[in-house]
# Entry
Amino acid sequence: MTNTLGRPDFEAIASWVQPGESVLDLGCGDGALLKLLERERGARCWGVELDPANVLAAVKNGVNVIQGNLEQGLADFEDHAFDHVVLSRTLQTVRHTQGILTEMLRVGREAVVSFPNFAYWKNRMAVMAGRMPVSDDLPYQWFDTPNVRFFTIDDFDALCIEMGIVVRERMVLDDQGNLVAEEHNFLGSLAVYRIKR
Amino acid sequence: MAIGSGVGIVESRLARFATPLRLRSGATLPGFELAYETYGELNAAKSNAILVCHALSGHHHVAGHYAEAPQNVGWWDNIVGPGRPLDTNRFFVVGVNNLGGCHGSTGPAVVDPATGQAWGSKFPIVTVEDWVTAQAGLADHLGIAQWAATIGGSLGGMQAMQWTIQLPARVRHALVIAAAPKLSAENIAFNEVARQAILSDPDYALGKRPERGLRLARMLGHITYLSDDQMADKFGRRLRHGEYRYGFGVEFEIESYLRYQGDKFAGWFDADTYLRMTKALDYYDPAAACGDDLAAALAPAQAQFLVVSFSTDWRFSPARSREIVRALVKNGQDVAYAEIESQHGHDSFLMEDAHYHGIVAAYLKNVPT
# Structure
């Protein structure tokens, strides 16, 4: 099971979920977040996962994992079926960015989206030095990365305005998992957004 | 190879029920018998029992073999046994032959006490709901108030699911594999062709065993249980004799395979049972009573679910399983769903596949006894 220590984004998400609320985690992996939300918040949880090994790990963890492909949308879920829909560190791997955000806010009352900030100063330094960034939040080489969308905190803010999405809360972390209080787009490695329509 | 040596030698038993059973069709059975087998030990709390429901041509001999017939291995032996996904070190596993079957339970081949003759074509039509009612009688007989789990593939998956709807307090988990919430028109069409093959066999009208009809029905069935990929892989266009003979004998390997399967089946399966099993499939539609709302039909269920489908199953495709998952999630019910990559089509549920068995084993490990 994934170690949830050192996952401050998980703690932020847990603090936004009220006891007994329902959560859908898209790309839930082995179900670590769902397990945490069930245990800590008494939430009612479901997850979607594509990778067979992760589905097996999630079944082992006893979570409600549904094997499926996010690129095919969330057609199997009803409108406003969940209090929260979570997309953790996955938005940058989804080709249909606007489609998935629209779908999340259709099936969920609100959504949580976390993603690596490509404008983090260390990433900028890497590019300045001539190489694509590799870090804990961007752990892949350019040739094997699942990431297909490269964007920054400022880019995401602009997209939210364009799509009429309201940002309820935002938490930005540096590469040590510490909260970043200012200059988010420069000092933040990972952004966690709580959004709604 | 399946884990361990399996459950070993097993015995078929018979449970008798003297109370009349009113069937969905309106007919009444004056009493009935169910053939069953058990594997593993029922614990003191009688809380570790799993019911295995069989599909079209299945029966109660799920695992192990008979002392007098070591070759007669149960139809789902690869999943039941010590250390296997249905782990008999933890669970008490029950297999049952359904009403209308031809393996010892009351059915067309059994003598109707009212006439002193075999029921034959006079045996009433039975439904999935009737089977659950009868299986509940067996649970009572064994002292099992609540199943730890019901499990089945295909038509068996429908029964596993029906338990949660019909007797929600009596099942804690349902494992619904390669199933569908109801048949499509195409599914019913295949069943109807199979039935017509039997009903139009002149031997059937004469009260004789309609072997030609059974053979055709089974050949058709087999085509729908396999996948196009698997057939291409296993047979392709390979020829029996290496060249065309420009006749109607067996030329292609696939023809040989289908004829073999058809002949084998026609030699032992009861035609009246086959007719009834296909009708039970056709009639099953739990959502119908709820305005075609499957979620409403499943709402009473108290069980948690594991739903499994197979990528190349076109008889009950993954989309059909997702209908069940969608309804359960809509209701806020607990469900895990795995879509297994497999080339074996509908028959995949019977195959030994490490990932598939891994999912079932992992799920059942979390089922308390």
